[in-house]
Design brief:
With 477 residues, the protein is α/β, with parallel strands linked by helices. Helices cover 41% and strands 18% of the residues.
Length: 477
């Protein structure tokens, strides 16, 4: 049984994906289903599953998952569910580049054995920790050597290449541009935004100026139709795949290194863990020791780290066996965290999410891309919110009771939260800047608010009178 499964895809005429609480199912037309079965029997598909680039997939018998709205002409499949759904508008630029590279690699390998992809939507990828996983099994088709045009190229460029160019040259993060454009950024939009760089940047010429000119030629009817032999058409498409891969790799190399913003200056939070002037060395060591002890007391499971900064505590959780999702609303800080996890060989999923304004639902009926709240609710065994409370309350204007209710909704079992008193210099400074008065907040009122949703299991003071760590269990009634 899949319970209240929701249809989560609407645009592929060959089928749709349905999401249940713990299952991912796909309905395909019989022709598309037979095609998928044939592809799954290839050594390439088996290898990609073993490597983690495709999720495990099986065909369902006619009497399995009867809740699915299938008739006799439809075939059903089940895919292994990935730990946490994520979307391109929550990715860092480097993750978007990695997703594009993974798609192009799969296309090249598939074409070599007579298969291909029929589209290049970035949402075909979901990250499992740091690894991009291709999930659109309906996209696999047998290779067509009748045309020299690789049809996924335009879509892949709209979803990956062009957003990365806008980030590199115009400081527009993919998280903002893609959220408002589910079909990606058009070549014409990118050309208009990057007009000044059309001759100075070779990628802008090839990805914006030339496609814009060719589009005008087609619209005017001046483009000439030509016929090609299968050998020439195949060679042309293979060259297109390779050139898109090379161009994407070149663009990714030119992205700003982790910790430097696009205007050449690192954000305040990118250097947070290196400075932390409000902690002494001993206090930092004490905080690390206390958090590690609390994580060990909880034991491994799914963990959400909110306000990850440079990723120190996300990485600590990953080392202790937690399947960790790390969120922050600062691109530079999160890029540092991702690089630190990669360098340490840790499998952490990093997402650009603002807790005070979580990612909304998008698409038809809000079902194609679920909101962060919908995906996070009840999904985690533990939530960690270190030095976050005062930022959400001050900058976001979120009342303490509302914040704790959200954290309680996210976690199934435990919460690690850092209490920061209004007398703390950092809290006092940001409150002063916003003209907010938090004089009514103290440890007693904080604990009273906590016990609405949690029982306090552990309380350790880190900086006397200013900062404390709490480990709490979620109330079940």
């Amino acid at each position: 049984m899949i319970g209240a499964a929701a249809r989560a895809s609407f645009h592929d005429p060959d089928g749709s994906v349905y999401l249940g609480e713990d299952r991912v199912l796909r309905l395909l037309t019989r022709a598309a289903g037979q095609r998928l079965l044939k592809f799954l029997r290839t050594p390439l598909a088996a290898r990609m599953v073993t490597e983690g680039r495709l999720p495990q997939t099986r065909a369902l018998a006619a009497d399995e998952a009867p809740e699915l709205p299938r008739d006799g002409d439809m075939m059903a499949f089940e895919h292994a569910r990935l730990p946490f759904l994520n979307y391109p508008h929550e990715w860092l630029p480097a993750q978007l580049a990695a997703a594009g590279e993974a798609t192009l690699d799969i296309a090249a390998e598939a074409r070599a054995i007579g298969w291909d992809l029929k589209d290049g939507n970035a949402r075909n990828i979901i990250f499992r920790g740091g690894q991009p996983v291709f999930v659109d099994f309906g996209s696999f088709v047998q290779r067509d050597d009748s045309t020299p045009v690789w049809r996924p190229a335009g879509q892949l460029q709209r979803h990956v290449h062009l957003p990365l160019l806008l980030y590199q040259l115009r400081s527009l993060a993919p998280s903002s541009t893609l959220l408002a454009r589910p079909e990606g950024i058009t070549h014409a939009e990118a050309y208009a935004a990057l007009r000044g760089a059309r001759f100075s940047n070779r990628h802008v010429f090839w990805l914006c100026a030339l496609p814009a000119w060719l589009g005008r030629q087609r619209a005017s009817g001046k483009a000439k139709s030509r016929s090609f032999t299968p050998e020439v058409a195949r060679a042309a498409v293979d060259a297109t795949v390779r050139s898109n891969r090379r161009r994407l790799t070149a663009i990714a190399r030119q992205l700003e290194p982790a910790g430097a913003s696009v205007d050449g200056e690192a954000s305040h939070w990118a250097g947070y863990e290196a400075s932390r002037q409000h902690y002494t060395t001993d206090q930092v060591a004490r905080k690390r020791s206390v958090v590690e002890g609390m994580l060990r007391a909880i034991g491994p499971g799914m963990l959400l780290d909110i306000g990850a900064n440079g990723g120190e505590f996300s990485n600590m959780a990953a080392r202790l066996g937690f399947d960790t999702v790390s969120i922050d609303n600062d691109v530079d800080a999160l890029a540092i965290a991702r690089r630190a996890a990669i360098d340490a060989g840790l499998d952490v999923l990093h997402l650009l999410v603002d807790l005070a304004a979580p990612t909304p639902a998008t698409g038809w009926n809000g079902a194609e891309c679920q909101s962060f709240d919908a995906r996070a609710t009840g999904r985690f065994d533990a939530v960690m919110a270190l030095a976050v409370m005062h930022h959400v309350m001050v900058a976001g204007g979120i009342p303490l009771a509302e914040l704790l209710a959200k954290l309680a909704a996210y976690t199934r079992r435990e919460l690690i939260i850092e209490y920061v008193d209004p007398c703390d210099p950092m809290f006092a400074e940001i409150a002063r800047q916003r003209g907010r008065d938090f004089s009514a907040l103290d440890p007693s009122s904080f604990e009273a608010a906590l016990t609405t949703h949690f029982t306090i299991e552990e309380h350790v003071e880190i900086i006397e009178g200013r900062r404390s760590m709490y480990r709490c269990k979620r109330r079940t009634t």
